[in-house]
Write a structure and sequence with these properties.
By secondary structure, the chain is an all-alpha fold. It is 77% helix and 0% strand. It is built from 6 helices and no strands. The termini are far apart.
Amino acid sequence: MTTHEASSQTRTGEGRLSPALLVGGAFALSTVLSVLMHVGQIVFTDADPYSPSGAVESIVATSIVGGAGLVLALAIALPLSRDPERARVGAIVLGSLSVVSLAVFWSGAPAVLGAAAAWLGGLAKGSHPQTGTARAFGVVGLVIAILVIVATTFGGIVGSISR
């Protein structure tokens, strides 16, 4: 691939993820993966799943909070994605929500909200290119999504090993 072809791909968005893959992937790699790790804990260990802060309680909490994050992200992003000016506002709102929701990082909600902010911030295939604050919140959202996915994956693995 020549330099001209590579820069052409970047400009047209061919090298970017689709919004569905971006947001859905963030949900799958954070919330769903966390739930599956807790299910694995029930199946493969002899730890009491019903103890306080046990696997069952974690599955319920992660499912509720992570699912609510997905619903909120889609409820904001889908209607705003069609208009560039409204998408700009949506990127800022969703980016802010991803930062605020870091307190519940274990649920995956910040990853989904951050991925939706990246979508509206112009970082997904087919999204409206944004500049300034909207683009910055899109980048912040993408970074939060990646960090939450890494924390969920490696935190779950380390937690499983140390038990």
